[in-house]
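Provenance

Sequences were taken from public entries as deposited. Structures were produced by running a predictor on each sequence independently, with no templates supplied. The record for WRIP1 ATPase from Sylvia borin is shown for reference.
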Amino acid sequence: GEEHYNCISALHKSMRGSDENASLYWLARMLEGGEDPLYVARRLVRFASEDIGLADPLALTQAVAAYQGCHFIGMPECEVILAQCVVYFARAPKSIEVYRAYGNVKECLRMHTGPLPPVPLHLRNAPTRLMKNLGYGKGYKYNPMYKEPVEQDYLPEELKGIDFFKKRET
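Predicted structure for WRIP1 ATPase:
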């Protein structure tokens, strides 16, 4: 019932708050109460990107490995795998930079009126002669061919200068 959601919320918030003791408690309470370990593992995969993100890019690898380990061996053996992951996450640095930036992109798309801007011609793939003749791919700079970063726009003209990482959510 409701306690299922209360416990996963407490686990999530304990890891976010870097409290490894509380994180282990809520994990054990869920598992010892009969919670599906794969449910917990799925929530850890989400937590890895939502709350830790780029502060520790290996967190997602940890979460996916924990999910796979739980899938392979099941309970009760997989409890230590989840415990390791939960403690790792509680101790990990946290960053919501990507989570917030992606939210800003979604807001930009939702708030847009009219048709969305077209993909700039130089970014379009040109697998046919007709597409090449229409200018698809013309002027594209293939970055690996340059020693230095190249100046090139990757967003539609209407979005030039926008930085989804710096935009504040309202």
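The CA atoms of residues 62 and 121 lie 40 Å apart.
The two ends are 33 Å apart (CA to CA).
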